[in-house]
Amino acid sequence: MMRKYFTYALLFGFPLFGCQNTITGQTAYEQNWMELEKENKARSFDSDIQLTADELSLDKKLFQLRNQFFAETEKQKIPIYNSSFNEIKPLIEKTKIFSILQSMPKGGLLHTHSGGVTDVKWVITAARKYKECYVYDQKDNDPFIFGQLAFFENGKVPKGFVNLDKKLNSDANFEKKLQELLILKRDNLCSYTNYWIEFEKRFKRISLLLPYRPFFKEYYMKGFRDLMKDKVQHVEIRFIFDELYDFQHGKYPLKTSISDLQDIVKEIHHSDPQFSLKLIYSSFKFLDPKSIEKQLETAFELKKEFPDMISGFDLVADEAAGNRIHSFQQNWEKLNELSKKYGVDMPLFLHAGESTSVFNKNVLDISLLDNRRIGHGLNLIYFPKTMELIKSQNKLVEVSPISNQVLGYVSDMRNHPARVLLSNGIQCSINSDDPSVYGYEGLSYDFWVAFMYWELDVKALKKLVFNSVNYSSLNKDEQKKATEYLNKQWADFVQKTNSTL
After folding, report:
1. Which of 111, 113, 376, 416 is catalytic?
2. Which H helix or E strand runs over 111?
C-alpha cells in the first residue's frame, strides 16, 4: 500500500509541487512588477507631488473625459493622431477639456518671442487705423516681400507699397489673403515645406510695424491682455531690441522699449496686480562672435539700468542654419568679467536642441554653462549623459509642442521627445513659442495637446504649471507672491471644476 502511494506521489505529486512553485513564482513576479512600476514613477518629473482628495476626484473626471473623446473620434474615424494642429484646431475648441484648460491657471509663459505674441487678425485691424500704414503688394524682391506691412511718412513711401486701408477696401479678398500670409500652417504632415523659410517670412512681414512706437504700445497691451484672459500671470519674452520711432520725434533710445513696457505693466496692474513681465535679451545665432560681444555689452548695460526687467540672454534662429553654441565659447568665457564690470549677472536662456538630428550637439554646451533653462531641447534624449547632468543641475526645458509640430520636428504628438524627458525626471514647462504665427492665442491649446497626447494626469498638469513660476526669472520675493497667488487660483480651479463636472 505504501509503495502504491509512493508511486502515486512520484507520478502526480511532483507536478503538484511544480504547480505550487509556479504560483509562488507568479507572486514574486507580481511583486517585482509592482516594485518596478514604483521605481519608474519615482523617476518621473512629478514624483514629489501629492494630490488632495479634490484633485484626485478631478483627475478621475478628466481621465473619463479624455477616454470619451478618443472613443468618439475613433467611432467617427477621425484621424486624430495623423492630423496637424491646423486641421484639428476647430475640433479642440469644441471639447469639454479645452474649456476646462482655458479656466486652469497656467502660472507663467516662459518661452515666447517679440513678434509672435498678438493675434494677426487684430494686427491687421489695428494697423489699418493708421493712415501711415502701407502694405507691399508686388512680388518678393531683395528688400521687401509680398504682404509686408510698414509705416511710412507721406511722400516717403517706397515703390510697391500701397495704403493698407485703401487696399483692404478695394480688394474684398485681400484681408483673408494677408491673414494667410501672416499665419504658418502645416496642413499635411507628409508634405515637404521648408518651414523655417516660411516661418521667417511671417516675422519679416510685421518687422517694420513693431518699432513704430504708437503701434508697439498697442501691440503689447493687446498681447498681455489676451494672455491674462487665458489665465497666464507671468510672461518672459525673448526680446529683439530695436530703436522705437515715431514721425514727430524720430528715433528713441534703445531703453525706451523697456520703459514703455513698464508703463504698460503699470496700467495692467490697475485691474490685474499679479501680472509680471521679464525680458530675455535676444540676438541671433547667425552672427559672428565679435557681433555677439557687442550684443552682450548692450545687454549688460540695459540690465544694469533695468535689473528687474532684463533677466538674461539668448541666441535665436534656425539651429540647422546658424552657428553652434560652442562657436561662441569666447563670449561665454567673458561673462564673469562682464558681470564684475557692470555689477549684474547675465544668466543664459539659450535655445538648444531644436532639432531631430544627433549631429546638432548644442545641448552639450548647456550643461557646461550657467544656462538655467533650455529652449526646446528636442534632441536632448539622444545624449543620455547630458540628460543626467541637466537633471542633476535642476535645469528646466521649455517645451512648445504646437510649435514643434508646425515647424516639422514632430508629427505624431504621442511621440514628442518631452514624454521621455518627463518620465526621466527632467523638469519641463509648457509654452506657446510664437502663437500668433501659428494662428492662435494664449497657452490653452498647448496644454490641451500635452494633456491629451502625452496621457498626462492632474499631478503632471499641476507640476507643469507650478514649474513655470518656480523656474521663472522672478526674484525670491516676486516668486513668493506669484506662488501664493497661483496656489489660491489652483485651489479655486479644482473646486469650481469639480462642482461643474
Report:
1. 376
2. strand 107-113
Check 354, 398, 416, 441 and give the catalytic one.
Answer: 354
- CA dist., res. 155 & res. 132, Å (int): 10
Average pLDDT over the chain, rounded to whole?
94
**Model pLDDT for residues 284-302, shown as the tens digit of each residue:** 999 999 999 999 999 999 9
Q: What is the pLDDT of residues 312-339, one digit of tens each?
A: 999 999 999 989 999 999 999 999 999 9
- Reported confidence tier of residue 87, pLDDT bands at 50, 70, 90: very high
Contact 203, 115 (CB under 8 A): yes
* 55 among known catalytic residues: no
Question: Which residue in the block uniquely carries the three cell numbers 479678398?
Answer: 173
Rounded to the nearest 5°, which phi and psi values hold at 415? -105, 20
Cell of 417: 521627445
Q: How far apart are the C-alpha atoms of 239 and 347, rounded to whole Å?
A: 15
Helix/strand/coil for 133: strand
Q: How far is CA 412 from CA 81, 368, 402, in A?
A: 6, 32, 11
Phi, psi of 312 (to 5 degrees): 180, -160
The Cβ of residue 195 has, within 10 Å, a number of other Cβ atoms equal to 15
376 has catalytic annotation? yes
3-state secondary structure of 75: helix
